[in-house]
Structure formats: C-alpha cells, structure tokens
C-alpha cells in the first residue's frame, strides 16, 4: 500500500516505518522533526512539515494518493501536559482534527491511530480491557481520548475505517541496532535506567515504594517496540482486507515492578545501579497491565519478544551507541 506515516521520524513511528518498508509498503514520513530525527527514517522519503501546516498536508496528500495513514505525531510527556495543557490539546487533538478533515478532502479511508493506556486513568480492575471506563487523569490522556472520539464518530458515518491502538509501556530498540529512543531528557523508566548504566546520569529515583503491589513499587506492562510495530503491520492488513474498525490494547498481559525492571538492567549491565527511593510521582497508577486477548484474536498478533531481559538488552545496546546517533 501507499502509506503516509505522521511522526515517522520519532521513536515508535521509525520502528513501524522500517517494518512497513520491509513488508513491501511504499512509505512516506510526515514529521516536523520536533522530537524526531532525519536519520530515523532510514531513507524513507521525509516531508519535513508540521501537521498544522494545512497547505503542506494537502499538497502531500494530493501528491501521494495514499491508501492509508498511520498517525503517530503527538506530544507525549505527561508532566508537561499538566503544566501546559493547551500545547497538548493543540497538537494532539486539534492537529488530529485537521488531519481527519484533510483525509476526508483527499478520500483517504483508512487510519491507524496511536493511542495510549493513559485513556484509562487509574483502572479499577487489572488487567484492563478495552471496555473499561475511559477516565484519563492528565491532559495528555484526555487529548488522546478526544482524538479517539473524533475518529470513532467519523468512522460511524462510514467515512473512515480505523484501528486505534492503545499502547501500554513501550520500550526496547531495534535488535539490529539501527533505531531506538533518542529523545533528550527522557523520563521513561527503562530509558532513564539505561542512561544511568551508560554513565549519563548519577542515579535513578524510584517514585514510590508504598504502593499496594508485591514489592511496593508500580507495576507496568512493558511491550517491546518491535512487537508493537508488528501490530501496526497487522492492523493495516486487517483494514486492507475490509476488516471493521477496532480499538485494541497493546501489551503482553503481565507486568513488572520498578524494582524488577531495575534488577533486569543491573543483570544486563553487570553492575549495581545507584538507586534512591523517593516519594510517589503524582498521577502514577499503582498497576497498569493490558488485557491483550482482543488484539491476539482480532489481528492474530503474537509477541516475539515477551522477555524483560531482551527488552532491556536492546535498550541498553542502543543507549551505548547513541553518541553517534544523536
Ligand atoms: N512512548 C510511549 O511509551 C507511548 C505510549 C503510549 C502512546 N504513545 C504514542 O505513540 C506515538 C509516538 O510516540 P513516540 O514515543 O514515538 O514519541 P516521539 O516524540 O519519539 O515521536 C513523535 C513524532 O511526532 C513528530 N511530531 C510531533 N508533533 C508534530 C507535528 N505537529 N507535526 C509533525 N510532526 C510532529 C515528532 O517530531 C516525532 O518525530 C504518540 O502518538 C504517543 O502518544 C507512546
Ligand atoms: O525515573 C523513573 C522513571 C519512572 N519511574 C516509575 O516507573 C514506572 C513507569 O514510568 P514511565 O515514565 O516509564 O511510564 P508511565 O507508566 O508513566 O507512562 C507510560 O504510560 C503512559 C500511560 O499511562 C503514557 O502512555 C506514557 O507515554 C508511557 O510511557 C512508573 O511507576 C514511574 O513512577 C521511576 O520510578 N523512576
């Protein structure tokens, strides 16, 4: 298929772009390089432009005659969304509205959308299924939920078919060493721990040790970025075969605590890390684990890298290589 990937120069979008190209698709990336990198497109054509630039978006869609769009472009830092909510509604919600309007103008009828487990807020039941209440607790999650609603409302008119993927905690890097997370000032646990292992930080803080979890630290469902990328390839196959619109959790269905993650980083690094226990970080649910049965049955998705040590090893290998990449 002829595909447009917004945000395809970012962490997740670049892994998906690579898999799409390998699967034989004709991929164009649309990215303003705000938090993405030209090298991350690995040679796929890049339109360096902002989603808010309607003229560039229209010109790109007119020239490309795309059969589907994958929409990753967004701001993603939860604490920043609390401090500057309108930045998140502008980029994540308003620019998604603009993209949907442009898709209508150009007759593009298929969309794969990057959503997040943050739409669930603090779920009452673990594992969390797609039918759980949608109660985001920060503007980032709310901005994504509003996009989900626009997409599903539009789909209900018959104008669009979509697969909305709600990612849990995405981590790891391309095992081939070509791609990985390169964002400066990262906040994600595995990324921060790998930076520490590589001597780029002095210590790591554990945010809260008194949660109602087995070891008192938060539990998350970490999914390797390559398995997540594969879900996008399958989502496109589903839409191309005339499949109905779907909303799917992307996780493995089991979680690890912060301490278990840090132990895995220490194993892979071969040395102890400097760890400091601190207070809870506001807005962190105790446990967030996906019920992943729907994506397995609807798309036939089967994880290849459901292994915390493998996730950490690829992230650490990538972190070691980063000076040349950044
Ligand atoms: N990283 C995670 O753990 C995670 C979890 C859940 C959901 N997601 C979602 O996955 C998607 C990708 O996240 P990521 O981790 O790869 O982040 P990222 O910051 O690495 O990638 C986002 C990309 O979008 C581009 N972009 C942002 N705004 C743009 C705009 N207005 N116009 C053009 N390009 C723009 C950036 O330059 C960047 O390349 C996001 O939609 C995010 O909400 C990520
Ligand atoms: O230095 C750190 C960083 C994180 N943590 C803890 O590690 C866990 C995971 O934190 P991350 O920041 O790696 O990830 P989140 O679970 O906060 O966020 C993830 O899930 C969110 C949805 O809930 C968003 O989608 C977000 O983009 C995605 O990374 C949390 O308990 C957090 O408190 C630490 O203890 N120390």
From TrEMBL:
<dbReference type="Pfam" id="PF01370">
    <property type="entry name" value="Epimerase"/>
</dbReference>
<keyword id="KW-0413">Isomerase</keyword>
<dbReference type="GO" id="GO:0003978">
    <property type="term" value="F:UDP-glucose 4-epimerase activity"/>
</dbReference>
<dbReference type="InterPro" id="IPR001509">
    <property type="entry name" value="Epimerase_deHydtase"/>
</dbReference>
<comment type="pathway">
    <text>Carbohydrate metabolism; galactose metabolism.</text>
</comment>
<comment type="similarity">
    <text>Belongs to the NAD(P)-dependent epimerase/dehydratase family.</text>
</comment>
<keyword id="KW-0119">Carbohydrate metabolism</keyword>
<dbReference type="GO" id="GO:0033499">
    <property type="term" value="P:galactose catabolic process via UDP-galactose, Leloir pathway"/>
</dbReference>
<dbReference type="InterPro" id="IPR036291">
    <property type="entry name" value="NAD(P)-bd_dom_sf"/>
</dbReference>
<feature type="domain" description="NAD-dependent epimerase/dehydratase">
    <location>
        <begin position="4"/>
        <end position="251"/>
    </location>
</feature>
<dbReference type="InterPro" id="IPR005886">
    <property type="entry name" value="UDP_G4E"/>
</dbReference>
<protein>
    <recommendedName>
        <fullName>UDP-glucose 4-epimerase</fullName>
        <ecNumber>5.1.3.2</ecNumber>
    </recommendedName>
</protein>
<comment type="subunit">
    <text>Homodimer.</text>
</comment>
<keyword id="KW-0520">NAD</keyword>
